[in-house]
Specification:
Aminopeptidase, five-stranded mixed β-sheet, globular, alpha+beta, 153 residues
Amino acid sequence: MHYRFRTATEQDLPRIIELLADDVLGAQRESSCYPLDKGYTNAFCAIDTDPNNELIVLEATANSEIVGLMHLTFIPYITHRGAWRCMVESVRVAADTRGQGLGEKMLLWAKDRAEARNCKILQLTSDKKRPNAIRFYQRLGFVASHEGFKLKI
């Protein structure tokens, strides 16, 4: 099967939320009930109008089904001589298409996109409760070089 990457549209939101909710952690915090929570539309509009954010979907060309998702944020830093970084978030592959190498294609595409934007670092985080994802990222060359912290407010 063939796939293509494209920028998400607002019409993609129901499928995007389905993908986000389709795992143990996402099921606890996302709601794919229709009509969608207005927060999703507000967030989409903020992402869509910000030139340093890209919500990217992976679409099967045969049937236009969205089978993958990732959110790229391009961040300027003072460190590393003012280099830009690309933060990858919300990486998801549809459950019925896992094991076909799509996640790897997505991360390689993200790396190419980051390089095209002159980023010097491609970074991501993964919940410690996702050991398979952590092994996957390490296999692709990502290094757990820092300890991350979050404060919910």
